[in-house]
Amino acid sequence: MPLQNGILTALATPYDEAGDIDEKLLRVLVDRSVDGGVSGVVAGGSTGEFAAMTAGERRLLVETVVDQAAGRVPVIAQTGAVATREAVELTRHAEKAGADVVMVVAPYYEALTRDETLRYLRTVADSVSIPVMLYNIPDATGVNLDPDTVGALAREQENIRYIKDTSADMAQAGQLIHRHGDVIDTFLGWDSLLLASVAEGAAGVMAGTANVMPAELVAVHQALTAGDLELARARWKRIYPLMDTLMTGGPFIQGVRAALQEIGLPVGEPREPLLPVEDPHRERIRAAVADLPHLAVRA
Predict the structure, then answer these.
(1) Nearest by Cα to 282 from 256, 240, 293
(2) Reported pTM
């Protein structure tokens, strides 16, 4: 299924009381996003805590999300790994499992050289026929995929068609959009830049906060693409306090999990070494969620 412009949910991974993946609740999260009108769902991204999972769990995650999405929206599977061999195996599995796009983060322990990074990305892209999304998150990998490098790689590798840029650098995003938009679509990986990036011409935003408020982010995107900036700003203003709390008030992954708990989805706590949000931040999240009572999940 082709990937359309819009909001992509970077799915959180629910855990049960034993700390295992809660497949039933994961399916609920998929449905919440699909029902909210998102353009795709992402299995095993950073918000999904992929780095804390075994390879078997990562495969299970992709299989479950593909099954639950059931062709209603595209599924993007994040398949990057520290070792090229493992990344290739996960990427091929995702294609076989029915993912529509694979998203590939650069190895995230030892910062690679430019040549090492490009060799890794080419090797993984060559291992499948489905579209590839590059995942640029320099704070985690130590390597920034600059716009001209991305453009050259997309022109070289036919199936590299998208990038998720999590540099939080709008100048860089603008260069991706305007210099290389003919060969690659740019999704911002920084939720609070939705208004700015889509107005700039980005394909959309991949958002962990879309677990909590998918329809609300979709509504902002729809207003922007319809050319109604005043309506987009009004919709954005309403949800911005919660967005700001989750993006800047404390650790993001834990914050999304706390917000999901506040709206009635018991997704469990993050896997250690991540710890739950501290009480003062949880109270701020609770207050921001309370101002949007319609987000609550009805029993």
Answers:
(1) 256
(2) 0.97
